[in-house]
């Protein structure tokens, strides 16, 4: 794990700083350019933090631009979710939200310019034929028989394509570059395809749509982007990016810089595979708390600060560093919530305890700090009476030596309260423990009992005052580090069947007023967040964000 006192590497930040100090760049302008065909995931968070963070740190600006060139896969819901995610992370884009479709008229004019310069042509080859003619990594391509059409014919065909005279797949517009280039991206790449699809921004105006490669660099140039920062899979596209800029009358020439993408273990970041999980109802939507989407992490209880901290911890390099340990992510949220989440007690698997030497109408209320190290958090009231609940896991009838919780004849301290002793165990007809009869040592509030040592402390909730709630225990969605590594095995075979366990729990009264997205440390259990969609007055649903380290679990594993 990266030492938090040592800044993580960020070669792009160092490079941009040198350019500004050297006078090559006066003001940095970056952009975050998502395709609105799905929700953003943790990999996008790295790109968001990099692009917006650079602009913040260097006194520049960052644009939010949707690369919306494929209307068949794009939805307004994705656009809305992406804007919300960026804002939630704490970033602000410069100017209005931009769309590549804002520039469709200009891109079309530039396509005509390339035709007039004899650098583009309309091709009638089918998609399969285009792939065949393109060649391979070891063999050059061969020119299309339509490559030498006249400028006039190409201009006429392009206009007719635009007007919807041809069916999808009948024709494409291609750049005329080099079919023998060792870089396949330069072998006459496609600029426009026919798509008879309504667009969420332009309606039915267009029957042809530009390719990503033709759109991206020119949109950067129109917006005055200085640094087009993208992941390493676009490195081989950079010569094409630069070819367009050098062969079109663009107003500026951005520079593309690539960095290594984020690969997180036990996680998928393929939009196609994430969409499959949603479509097959394996998860409950894009914001299911098991999903690596920003909205899913938010619903699970991650904070903007923790995600930004994680992205800073992993750094920015050109080298593919392999898998990032998911423990770095959980460390980032755990350290944030350790400092900022108020405490509360919640019993996930209630086991009733009756204190036999306490009167039925007895009640006292403890004033307990909201956070042990935060004087700015209000005190909370914890009522105590004859009947209460502890967690089933805090009792064992046949307890081993190192089990310092409750057992027959053994003592344990109730958190912030007295020491109790288990005197009797009641069971149902099936032999299951349903109730414990215990006695209280009233001389142990705030002090140790005379002449004996009590090591165990358990959390508890008053039966008369407890708040019923549903608690959802989330874990990794996959059981293996790289779910899609083996191409011969369906990644769905690696699903964790225990990734969601639902408990009908009881919490202390202070939790009754929890608002959606309120976060707490349930003492001894972990960090939890009130579900942003399902929680409401009178109905509380809490999602486990991350657990606490459990020494007993380690002992059992060694067992």
TrEMBL record:
Its EC number is 6.1.1.18. GO terms for cellular component: cytosol. The gene is glnS. PANTHER family: GLUTAMATE--TRNA LIGASE, GLUTAMINE-TRNA LIGASE. It catalyses: tRNA(Gln) + L-glutamine + ATP = L-glutaminyl-tRNA(Gln) + AMP + diphosphate. One of its GO terms (biological process) is glutamyl-tRNA aminoacylation. Residues 27-328 form the Glutamyl/glutaminyl-tRNA synthetase class Ib catalytic domain. This is Glutamine--tRNA ligase. It comes from Vreelandella nanhaiensis. A motif ('KMSKS' region) lies at residues 268-272. Monomer. One of its GO terms (molecular function) is glutamine-tRNA ligase activity.
